Amino acid sequence: MAAANNPVFQGGKGCGQCYDVKCTYPSCKAEPTRIVITDQCPGGIYCSTNQPAFDLSGAAITSMALPGRDGELRNIGLYNIQYMRVPCQYPRQNIAFKVDPGSSAYWLSITVKYQGGPGDLSSVSVRMAGSNYWQPMQHNWGASWMLICYSGQPFKGPYDIQITAKLNGHTAVATRAIPEYFQPGALYNSNVQMLY
Predict the structure, then answer these.
(1) Torsion angle, CA of 39/46/78/25, rounded to 10 degrees?
(2) How many CA atoms lie within 13 Å of 151's alpha carbon, on the beta-carbon side?
(3) HSE of 159 in the Cβ direction (CA atoms, 13 Å)?
(4) Beta-strand (E) ranges in the chain?
(5) What is the DSSP secondary-structure string of 15-30?
């Protein structure tokens, strides 16, 4: 996992993108390490530029290093890397939806997890039980999207979820992805996966 600055994170819409990264120091492996963007860089001079920058997790640094030499990379602290955007792959794992804490029949917030292919999202919509209408969700943060009840009528599940990839516009529809009586904090696996 890794955080990225805004040219990559794109205000949260780049959350979920996958990259192969590698460094060129003597303590680095020749083959790349796969990372997933999960957060925004915390700031600082490099995370605040208009050039792509990555804040790698400890696990990513260890994976980039030759066996037993990850301490050398950690001591360098700041280094140039080569990177390339690649399709996200989650073998034997479909897209899953985590119902965020605090969700109710009047405010539904979900986090999209394990989206393959492009990994990023341009839109998420919900269709409720008995409806033919897709209601667009508002982007909240990262891979989190929310739907607010303005009518005073509670939402009714089960819920179908439609997601659209930002990179190529591909769409996937997960039917009955979230049950009517969902549990906030619960993760619900779908029956679909996104291709590149």
Answers:
(1) 100
(2) 7
(3) 29
(4) 2-4, 18-23, 33-40, 54-56, 81-86, 96-99, 107-113, 121-127, 135-136, 138-141, 144-148, 159-165, 171-178, 187-189
(5) TT-EEEEEE-STTB-S
147 vs 59: CA distance, rounded Å: 34
Please state the separation of Cα 85 from the chain's center in Å. 14
Q: What are phi and psi of 76, to 5 degrees?
A: -65, -45
Domain annotation for the chain: domains and CATH numbers: 2-86 (2.40.40.10), 96-189 (2.60.40.760)
**For the CA atoms of 4, 10, 12, 15, what is the dihedral angle to 10 degrees?**
-60
Strands 18-23 and 81-86: antiparallel
Q: How much is the pLDDT for 188? A: 98
Indicate the SS3 state at residue 47.
helix
Neighbours of 132 (CB within 10 A): 5
State the pTM of this model.
0.85
Cα 190 from chain centroid? 16
Q: Which residue is it, tokens 């179908």?
A: 160
Query: For residue 84, which phi and psi values (nearest 5 degrees)?
Result: -150, 130
Supply the pLDDT for residue 141.
86
The pLDDT of residue 73: 84
